[in-house]
Amino acid sequence: MNVRRSAAVLAAVAVIGAAPPAAADPSPSPSQAFPSALYGGKDPKFDGVWRQSLALLAQDTVGVKPAAKSVEWLVRQQCADGGFASYRADPTTACDARTMLDTNATAAAVQALSALGGHDAVTGKAVTWLKSVQNKDGGWGYSPGGASDTNSTSVVIGALTAVGEKPEQVEKGGKSPYDALLKLALGCDGDSAGAFAFQPDEKGKLAANADATAAGVLGALGEGMLVKPGEKAKATKGESCEDPKTPERAAANGAAYLTKALAKDGHLSSALAGADPQPDYGNTADAVVALAARGDTGQAEKSLSWLEKNSSTWAAQNGPAAYAQLIFAAHATGTNPRDFGGADLVKQLNATGPAPQTAEKTRAADEKSDSDSDLFGVWWYVGVCLVAGVGIGFLFSGRRNRQQL
After folding, report:
1. Model confidence over 80-133: pLDDT tens digits?
2. Where are the alpha helices (H) located in 82-209, listed in sequence order?
3. 364 to 102, 141, 348, 349, 368: CA distances (angstroms)
4. Residue 52 · residue 74 · CB < 8 Å
5. Fewest CB within a 10 Å sphere: which of 14, 232, 261, 264?
6. Cα–Cα distance for residue pair 84/105, rounded to 1 Å
7. Is 375 exposed, middle or buried (0-12, 13-18, 19+ CB in 10 A)?
8. CA distance to 57, 133, 149, 177, per residue, from 232 (Å)
């Protein structure tokens, strides 16, 4: 996911340089410059739809009903042709040729809204748009017309699966998304054996990329970001790399590559030019989901344990999408996200945006309960007084009767 967002920034910068400033949000929150319905407090220019989609999908995964205005905000980000941009500050302004549509944001929105239910018209238009911008090799790039990459192709596969489409039947020029992924899968030579590349370089060569491999394993399996624990029971340990002629074989090779990469320290690493490698928390979480998708629970659980111990600072700094990634990793391994190394990921995610409906209803119920209790207390007191009054009446009445006698 980190590579995917980096690609988004690079692509967006190129367009923004020639585009006029975005219009201001028509209904900003008094306490912040960004829409009040949006999760996260950082500039959403490059990832607003992405992080909102992940946040809503993660909430739904753990049985939390998102705030209605947050869901509506996501729906209103859609352009008339069905695509989504990374972020539109003013959704009341129609999209035009200058609106940079984003296959990743669109596919993520489809996965979230499909899980929430009740948005078939929105997801249907989005999938139609995704099909219209499919490349001739069967894959997708970050932007329409861009060269196919593993991450974008895989997240679109997840969207197709979410709405009940069969990815192998979604073809362009006789090529399916799986054909595109197989072209980006490395062979079985050297340390990069079994990995996926993000994209070919300028000379057409493929270089192993851990983030792309995690995405590629999920895509090759036809899975989205949300993976149910224990669905598959295949093992990678001891498997040898074989020519990736099928999606299943490419997924097995990719899982073996991830297992090897994670085995040393329990996490993946990344480094900027000239800097020492640092733990890559987001890609590690994605790798856990990818391994769990195949039932490779051994290394997945070890790496999840590492995340439980080490990811809190990273998640707090990166906000809703980071919390969502950790929730997906916990869900994929059958781990309780409300007790993630002692932290409640669900509570932390909810705190980055509007209170979800679940919380609102709980709070309303508590307030009603308190009100009912207060009301009951008043009437109980009145009742006691009435009973006492009746008793006193009987007492005085009895005294009068005895006096008459």
Report:
1. 999 999 999 999 999 999 999 999 999 999 999 999 999 999 999 999 999 999
2. 103-116, 120-132, 150-162, 177-183
3. 39, 46, 21, 21, 6
4. yes
5. 264
6. 6
7. exposed
8. 22, 32, 26, 22
Give 269's strand partners: 279
> Which residues does residue 279 pair with via DSSP β-bridges, in sequence order?
269
Whether the CB-CB separation of 274 and 256 falls below 8 Å is answered with no
State pLDDT tens for residues 179-212.
999 999 999 999 999 999 999 999 999 999 999 9
DSSP codes of every residue in 277-338: -EEEHHHHHHHHHHHHHTT-HHHHHHHHHHHHHH-HHHHHHH-HHHHHHHHHHHHHTT--GG
Helix (H) or strand (E) holding 269: strand 268-270
How many Cα atoms are found within 13 Å in the side-chain-facing hemisphere of 319? 16
Total count of residues recorded for the chain? 405
pTM of this prediction?
0.82
The encoded tokens of residue 118 equal 């009740």
The strand pairing partners of 138, in sequence order, are none
Closest CA to 111 of 94, 93, 134, 130: 130
Q: Residue 175: helix, strand or coil by DSSP? A: strand
d(CA 138, CA 153): 8
Residue 201 identity (one-letter amino acid) = D
Letter for the amino acid at 240? S
Relative to beta strand 278-280, strand 268-270 is antiparallel
Would you tell me how many other CB atoms lie within 10 Å of the CB of residue 282? 24
